[in-house]
């Protein structure tokens, strides 16, 4: 390479490093400002209306967005229903996903004003942000870069291969998140989403009979045994955070330190001293919101850019549950 090119190469490098979003991301804030200016507010009001005054279930939107992005990128693959040509999509009953009705309500509202313009993947990213806003104390609307396109592939096997199971230990969780470019710190940050929503007994039942008192607080374990009896015929549902159930706050981190978290994977975060340092510091951030909250927003924005389809790739689905014919 000639010496004359080096300054250009270096300035490109500097630009790449300083640029807020990674080079492969073509998403932009306000992507629909000319093609569908009220897209984001329409999603927000449709979600609020569909929740009908009960914000707790909004938690499901944050989880749907996470599952979407970790499997084949944020392409709305998690929203595709089983069909004769694809009998086993990403959204398998083992994951206990909910909230698809909320996404459908938002899509219907957006299609009514701008048909064929706004992707289901973007609607889900906006909806996850709106769920954050509804559940975080005081509310907070972060920017959601948009321009995602919808994919047409959805596979249960890919979901199993890419999503973390609640039985994983910390090493395995780190590997799963590192495969998507997330650090141990970001794993801990994002896990704060377990401060809201629910889990089915099937997701943690194996920890209860018998329970290990070094991993679960005995009073907490007995309470969970009451909610998830052995050999029960129904798969019960339990609140993830018993202290501040519908509040997206840092209580989750205190719950970890108190052995009062449902999933083995939640408890496993405290098995590494470096992780514990982060957990302790987040657990103190309940007044100022200067540690966990900005980290969580940044991590959600990063999550939302994973392997996205843009430009003319993919399609804009007309309903989120099926690819366009
Ligand atoms: C660290 C690895 C993770 C594992 C092993 C995991 C696993 C699970 C499991 C098993 C449930 C309960 C599902 C049920 O039985 O109903 C759950 C719920 C949930 N997860 Fe995670 N998760 C992880 C990370 C995340 C991340 C990164 C987010 C989002 C940023 C997230 C958001 C949620 C939310 C909001 C719920 C409640 C959903 C609802 O109420 O419907 N999780 N997770
Ligand atoms: C985590 O699980 C894997 C697979 O079972 C095992 O090889 C590894 O030793 C475990 N790590 C820790 C820290 O327990
Ligand atoms: C649950 O089922 C197992 C075997 O299926 C049995 O050994 C156990 O006694 C049962 N426990 C209760 C509480 O019914
Ligand atoms: C899926 O989309 C790709 C391009 O986005 C296209 O080439 C392919 O034919 C589509 N497959 C189906 C089954 O729609």
From TrEMBL:
**First and last residue of the signal peptide:** 1-23
Per the UniProt record, the source organism is: Rhynchospora breviuscula
Which intervals hold domain Plant heme peroxidase family profile?
A: 26-324
Top-level taxon in the UniProt lineage: Eukaryota
Function in brief: Removal of H(2)O(2), oxidation of toxic reductants, biosynthesis and degradation of lignin, suberization, auxin catabolism, response to environmental stresses such as wounding, pathogen attack and oxidative stress.
Q: Where in the cell is it found?
A: Secreted
- Which residues are the active-site ones? 67
Q: Name one GO cellular component term.
A: extracellular region
Mainly resides where? secreted
Query: Known catalysed reaction(s)?
Result: 2 a phenolic donor + H2O2 = 2 a phenolic radical donor + 2 H2O
Which Pfam family is an annotated match for this chain, by its short name? Answer: peroxidase
Write the protein's name.
Answer: Peroxidase
């Amino acid at each position: 390479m000639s010496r004359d090119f080096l300054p250009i190469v270096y300035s490109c490098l500097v630009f790449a490093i300083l640029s807020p979003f990674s080079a492969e991301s073509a998403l932009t804030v306000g992507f629909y400002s000319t093609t569908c200016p009220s897209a984001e507010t329409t999603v927000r009001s449709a979600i609020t209306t569909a929740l009908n005054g009960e914000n707790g279930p909004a938690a499901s939107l944050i989880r749907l967005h996470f599952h979407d992005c970790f499997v084949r990128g944020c392409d709305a693959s998690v929203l595709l229903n089983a069909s004769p040509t694809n009998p086993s999509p990403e959204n398998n009953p083992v994951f206990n996903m909910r909230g698809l009705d909320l996404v459908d309500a938002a899509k219907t509202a957006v299609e009514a004003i701008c048909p064929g313009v706004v992707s289901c993947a973007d609607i889900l990213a906006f909806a996850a942000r709106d769920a954050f806003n509804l559940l975080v104390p005081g509310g907070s609307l972060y920017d959601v870069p948009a321009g995602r396109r919808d994919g047409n592939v959805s596979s249960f096997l890919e979901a199993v291969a890419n999503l973390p199971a609640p039985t994983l230990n910390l090493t395995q969780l780190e590997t799963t998140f590192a495969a998507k470019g997330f650090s141990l710190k970001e794993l801990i940050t994002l896990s704060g989403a377990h401060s809201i929503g629910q889990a089915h007994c099937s997701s943690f039942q194996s920890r209860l009979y018998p329970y290990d008192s070094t991993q679960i607080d005995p009073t907490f374990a007995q309470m969970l045994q009451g909610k998830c009896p052995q050999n029960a015929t129904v798969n019960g549902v339990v609140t993830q955070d018993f202290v501040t159930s519908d509040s997206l706050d840092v209580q989750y981190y205190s719950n970890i330190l108190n052995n009062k978290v449902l999933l083995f994977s939640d408890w496993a975060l405290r098995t590494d001293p470096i992780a514990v340092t982060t957990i302790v510091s987040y657990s103190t951030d309940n007044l100022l919101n200067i540690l966990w909250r900005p980290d969580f927003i940044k991590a959600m924005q990063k999550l939302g850019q994973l392997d996205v389809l843009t430009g003319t790739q993919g399609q804009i689905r007309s309903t989120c549950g099926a690819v366009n014919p």
